[in-house]
Fold this sequence. Notes:
The structure holds 3 protein chains of 3 kinds.
Chain A: H1 4-20, H2 24-49, H3 57-73, H4 81-100, H5 105-125, H6 127-130, E1 136-137, H7 152-175, H8 177-187, H9 189-194, H10 199-225, E2 227-228, H11 235-248, H12 253-269, H13 276-291, H14 295-301
Antiparallel strand pairs in A: 1-2
Chain B: H1 2-29, H2 36-53, H3 58-81, H4 89-111, E1 127-129, E2 132-134, H5 136-158, H6 160-170, H7 172-177, H8 182-208, H9 214-229, H10 234-254, H11 260-274
Antiparallel strand pairs in B: 1-2
Helix pairs in contact in B: 1-5, 1-6, 1-8, 1-9, 1-10, 2-3, 2-4, 2-8, 2-9, 3-8, 5-6, 6-8, 9-10, 9-11, 10-11
Chain C: H1 2-27, E1 36-43, H2 50-69, E2 77-84, H3 89-101, E3 106-109, H4 113-126, E4 130-132, E5 147-149, H5 154-168, E6 174-179, H6 182-197, E7 204-208, H7 216-224, E8 229-233, H8 236-249, E9 254-257, H9 264-267, H10 272-275, E10 279-282, H11 292-305, H12 311-330, H13 334-342, E11 347-348, E12 353-354, E13 365-372, E14 375-383
Parallel strand pairs in C: 1-2, 1-3, 3-4, 4-5, 6-7, 6-8, 8-9, 9-10
Antiparallel strand pairs in C: 10-13, 11-12, 13-14
Helix pairs in contact in C: 2-12, 3-4, 5-6, 12-13
Amino acid sequence: MKYHFPLVLCIVIALLIPVIARDGYIIQLLNIAILNAIVVLGLNFATGWVGQINFGQAAFYGLGAYTTAIATKAGLPWITTPFLSAIVVMAASLVLGLPTLRLRTYYLAMTTIGFGEIVRLVIVHWEPVTGGTSGLRAIPGISVLGVGPDGQVQHYYLLIVVLALAALVAARIRRSTLGRAMIATKDSEIAAEQSGVDTTRTKLFAFTIGAVYAGIAGCLYASSIRFISPDSFSGTQAILLMTMLIVGGMGSIPGCIIGAVGLTVLPEALRFLGQWYLVLYGFGVIAVIVLAPGGLASLAARWPRWAGAR
Amino acid sequence: MGQLVVNGLALGSIYALVALGLLLIFNTVQIVNFAQGQLLMLGAFIGISGAVKHELPMALAWASTMLAMALIGIVFMVLVYFPLRGRPPFLVILTTIAMGIVLENIALILWGPLPVSLPSPVRGPPLRFAGVVISMHQLFIFGTLAVILLLQYLMLTKTRFGVLMQATAQDLHTARLVGIPVNRTIAVAFALGAMLSGVAGLLVAPIFLAEPTMGGSLGLKAFVVSVIGGFGNLPGAVIGGLFLGLIETFGARYISSNFRDAYAFIVMIAVLVAWPRGLFGEKSSEKV
Amino acid sequence: MLREYLKITMAGAGLFCLTVGFNRAANADIAACPTTISFGLTTPLTGGLALLGTQARNGAEFAVDEINAAGGITGKKIALATEDTGASSTDALNAMNRIIDGKPLVIMSSMISPHVFAQTESVNKAETPFVVAATNAKVTAQGSKWLFRNHAHDGQLADLIPEYLVKSLKKTKPGILVVADDYGLGASKGIQAALAKLNVTPVAMASYAPSDKDMSAQLLEIKDKGADSLILFGRPSDITLVLKQMGDLGIKLTTIGNTSIVAQTTLNNLSAAEADGNYAIGGMIPQTATDPKILDWAKRVQDKYKVPADNFTVAYYDSVYMLKSIIEKVGCDKPAIRDALAATKEWKGMLISYQADANGDMAHTLGIYRNKGKVPEFIGPIKESGF
């Protein structure tokens, strides 16, 4: 593997962080960043590799979180929740994906925005089930056969493992026939069809796999943060996820992680800027798109020894 | 019920105006400007700055706002269009969204979050008949929409400039080869597009008040309207706008006010499923 | 000889122990405070909720600055650490974690209930007294012994508004219109329940999204269904639009709602006709006070922060002073402060007296207001039943 050294370095640093930074705030923040990274990895399938714009990823994230929260609060054992969340988001992604396959970029963007809004409105107004705008709290934590992580640090290690698995699966898909089909579809749909690629199925797969990533991340979010409310899965969050993907590096697995961690930590680190933070954030996104459309990962790739997966 | 029609049409006219500005830019350079709503917001605040803060007479305030918006449109073009020529569409979408965020937060820093009002250019008691109330301002909105539609039609079909715009929209490279001043045409498109949103802002502020976050929702509805009518199709956008205004108002009244925003999207998705190119068809076809 | 030495040594040791013991017992009454007393505050300072959230910061900071200028608490200055929660509950949780890392003596959070719901568990774990204005009735039902609420809540409004409407204003066919966020929807539920107890059924229940600008459909529905009154719950920006549109549509209904109806930011954008005659019940606002010191305070707050003070500004200002008087009595010991808060009885704030009940709610007196043209008038105080 040509990127052996930097990868190992990152893993070592990641594992050592809880030892160095003991305080709950940083670990909690990183946990949220890791969950975002899993969601962005999911977004990468449909948007980074197939080129389908998708502003509905936050809605899948929320559906996963709410499914898990409602299930565990109703008394179901935790082990069922990742599956339940995955099933719910798969169904939702089919509902969203099937009719929109024929749509072109701008229409697709609007439709996914609409989907996200409708899901959010349902969550807000279906108060008896979802807790409405107050959200759901005291969500039971992760527990398999009575054993579960206790405290921020243990959750951190668990999430790192899940992220690693998610990245590995994504890398394998990328190298598989399906992955090549995805890239081909993005470059030119007509050419791909001519080469025998079933672009419709490819698009749908990418969409659904991406949704499942978000759904499972949502499940973990609900079980580790233990409080959810609709404002964490709003349209603003959907845009933020997109920018994480683009700033980190569309199509690049390390890029997804860099973008997610970076744009989760950055607003916290720059809180002192107040209102100016969002102005800078907007300009920053524009700068990255204009100057480095491959995102930060592409900048890193300029150092040949440190090339990320492509 | 008649009242619902009047209010729905007034709201729809605003949507239509923003959509017209959006489509003017799109028809020329194939960019969907997701910051169109924020341009509306800027128009409202500049108008308030002129009319309320500097106490200019209303006509002068409107005129200076138009001028300012034209300049802002050109600046927008420089910041957004030139750097992104040839980039894939959804990077452009993200860029315009980011511009929208920048504009909204600069507005928050400059003017604060408190809503401010702008007096209407027209005064007088509302018309009342058959149990329906139409305010002077609502009539002014209808009138402005009609005038702008007429002007836009005349410009695009009868003036040399309008023909140049259509040529640029159809094929940029050939237009340039043929000697059409493409950059100037594009600049005018952006200026006019921004001005149209500015007018919408000036029309909206007296009834909805102006505050920096007002652009997001109105901009979004304008896109929905454009999709419904068929992207690029100007009359389609107007009909789509009026239609959406009515649907939202009637839906909120007779189905449920909780899901008002959802109606726009549901109608849009329904239209797209049945007519993937919008109700009236797109004007220009997308490149393969 | 040795035995004598031992006796003296033992007596000396015993005497020494007694002296030390006595000193210890004396100091245990007031836990020593560090050179700076640290307070923490999380509230939205940016984003859609900033208009409300900044009032918490304004009130708390104004009090802290006043106290520090007068020498601080027992000579020690207060350091107020403020963190911006933004609009999302996840960010609110992060902000709270940052505050907790600074190990403050007391933590305050805003009036935004979803944020407080997200934060409570962390504050419980940090075992720190937690003062909030979050208005959702269930905030104090979480079972946290550290959480105290310094402001009127929706449960009280849900009971008092219908009661006043039915019994004092004699209206029996209300329409309900609320903003579709936690604030409005939570209140709407409570109001419907209270109306049911009074054997009144609302003719219509409508809501509007926080960013909506056109509420005419909802207003027309309420009018068409024959309402004789309107119960209105929202934030100043949207309430302004509702009242304007009521005027435009010529809808005349007795209107009662939360203090957004009499808030300065609402009245600034309404004409006298649009504002006139509408009622509000809620946390007391300073603008209608007769005491010139309070009016001067409101003016100074407005001059400093460029935004008129409201009921929340008062609540947080009062809270800081309340904490000051508690710390002066029991020192900088978190459990002792918590116990003192729980024992609050008739503590006189700027406009109301505070008294802690079993759940941690401290505000039980609200104000009834009515607009006379563009100026709110204070009709009188109204107390939660049982107080």
